[in-house]
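To illustrate the input format used throughout this study, we show a single complete record. The first block contains the structure-token representation of the backbone; no residue identities are included at this stage. The design step must infer an amino acid for every position from geometry alone.
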């Protein structure tokens, strides 16, 4: 039987990373699309394309300065689309390679889960057997994001669907307003549902 392939998403501060860690602790094979993007910025072809487009101002030595790049990209639809066209196909390739490799494990994991903040925005939900939206109370999300660059967060969140819309589109919705143990319990139920 094929291993369930699951997409995990949610808004800023909802607890996607915590959910991903709990799913891994429950035995799922997990991958963060954001981590893949961070790795891609170290690839020569990607770094060269970014340097050609934006110049040295978005680099810290040889490394792409993600914060500086974000300031250039998230204020411009044209620049954001260019970056998405550069990165998204490469991210999709890495995700597919991970799915194949993880599904071949013996014993197989109960699911292969990919955390993708822009899962629905990118239109990639059809790749997955099921999707999970992690949602949380708005005030709680703001508390969790305290100390981060609020202006940049607002700009990025404006590009995302509201969490209620993500919840409407998802196969499973996990409410992360309580403890990590409560979150884990909900996720275990989802894993049982998708793996069965």
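Output of the design step:
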């Amino acid at each position: 039987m094929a291993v369930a392939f699951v997409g995990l998403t949610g808004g800023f501060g909802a607890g996607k990373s915590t959910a991903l860690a709990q799913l891994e602790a429950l035995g799922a094979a997990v991958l963060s699309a954001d981590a893949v993007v961070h790795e891609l910025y170290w690839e020569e072809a990607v770094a060269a394309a970014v340097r050609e487009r934006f110049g040295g101002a978005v680099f810290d030595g040889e490394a792409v300065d993600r914060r500086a790049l974000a300031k250039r990209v998230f204020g411009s639809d044209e620049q954001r689309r260019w970056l998405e066209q550069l990165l998204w196909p490469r991210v999709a390739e890495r995700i597919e390679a991970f799915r194949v490799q993880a599904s071949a494990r013996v014993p197989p994991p109960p699911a292969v889960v990919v955390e993708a903040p822009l899962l629905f925005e990118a239109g990639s939900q059809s790749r997955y057997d099921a999707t999970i939206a992690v949602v949380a109370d708005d005030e709680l999300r703001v508390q969790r994001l305290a100390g981060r660059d609020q202006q940049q967060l607002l700009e990025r969140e404006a590009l995302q669907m509201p969490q209620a819309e993500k919840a409407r589109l998802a196969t499973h919705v996990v409410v992360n307003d309580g403890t990590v143990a409560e979150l884990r319990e909900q996720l275990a139920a989802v894993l049982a549902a998708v793996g069965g």
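Structural context for interpreting the output: The chain has a mean pLDDT of 90. The chain has one domain: 4-195.
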